Amino acid sequence: MAMGHLVPMVELGKLILRHYHHRFSVTILIAEGPLDTPDVTTFLRHISESTHSIYFHYLPSFSMNPSLHGNRASSFVDLINLNNPNLRQALQTISKTYSVRAFVIDFFGNLALNVASDLGIPTYYFLTGGAVTLSFFLHLPTIHNQTTKSFKDIPTTHLHFPGLPSIPASNLPEPVLDREDPAYNYFVEISLNLRRSKGIMVNTFECLESPLIKIITDGLYVPDAPTPPVYCIGPLIASPENKEGITVNQCISWLDSQPSQSVVFLCFGSRGVFSTAQVREIAIGLEKSGQRFLWVVRNPVSENNNINYSEENKEPDLEHMNKAFLVEEMKLAMSMEKLEDGLVSAAEVENKIRALMEWEEGRLLREKSRKMKEEAMDVWSDCGSSMIAFARLAESWVDRRYNHYCEQMQMVVNSFDSVMGFGAATPYTSLAQKAMSRHFRCLKDSIAAQLKHTCELLGEKDGTRASGVTKGETPRLKLLEQSLKQQQAFHQMGMTDQEAWRP
């Protein structure tokens, strides 16, 4: 799992516990695989040591033969398929101890939805990307049905997405260009399963992508079926808490000594790997720009592995759609153009850095980004859009639990009435209903125990009627009243019956 997926998931767990620790516990399932980096292990160890209320359940690890896969997307598919039996076992084990109210799956954990559905567990998707990512995958089945050809065979055909600039088919993510690629079918299945989920959480906030979010929630991306509830609960980023024991990095000390807003920061994610040639072009462009910079750089693939770098080794993304939205619609970014060989030249890097740091265009862009940052901080205030969306999501879990318990309570009441007569349970259900959302499991056991005890007092087993009493008769209500008075007398004498029921 990439850090860009893992960190927001952990922050979501912290968020749930921060506001609903008295109602929910959080367990995160970790599927270890050959694509993991050492950073993942370090991060998980730190969270385990500093956040004891989040539990990690590690699925059994296994190795994969990289020669069997054409690209990384196919590897993701195989990795998830191999983990399904382990996932089922984990959910069954957890369900024996806890009542699982929601199963939140990462976008790439798509096949887990079928496992959870078989077990009757409500499933939600969590997208670490924004509304643009969600819009693409909600709309993929529609554009899939518009042609029988692979998108790579119709590269100049423009595809239309409601509320977004149209893009040529050649600009779609690599895994969906070829219909014969196993990854293509997997991503189509993700798109269909998104519609089956109980809801979709997106790591974005409304004011950042409000027009597109409204179009999605209005149902324009799923014209032939209901759109699941969409919860914009971002930004979810690593919190600055628990800094004790962390050594200040030399880079941070250097940053603190630089003038405000004078440093160019480059970071392409834990899976952001470039060829040696591209790394060289970026380095030259940075140097020639004359700007201070901090670059989180990974060694090129060809220097660390016995394989050659290719575009297929990249993690699937929505580069072209994101670029069109950020540059053309939101005006929050500048685009860098590639050469025919796919490289971004040093001259292009230098030019765009100078534009960002020295020109009026860059100043306006940075000012707009600063304002968006302030709005991003406000969304988690008490009346902020993300806080409201999160509260709506969490309360839906509470309501679902309450409704489930109501059904269980009604079953118990019906059983009680079948023994004691219609309406016998009414004096007790009022208080039980009030306590049900937090204490129903205990109440249910108490009611069931009292039901069993009453049956034994009346000479009945398993709720069957005593001899000589026909259906509809309620003389046993008087016996129940006598029993309760007897228990009250025992209580006053300090001889409380151990089986006495207290709602």
Automatic annotation (TrEMBL):
One of its GO terms (molecular function) is UDP-glucosyltransferase activity. Gene3D superfamilies: Glycogen Phosphorylase B. Residues 298-449 form the POX domain. Keywords: Transferase. This is POX domain-containing protein. It comes from Protea cynaroides. The lineage of its organism: Eukaryota, Viridiplantae, Streptophyta, Embryophyta, Tracheophyta.
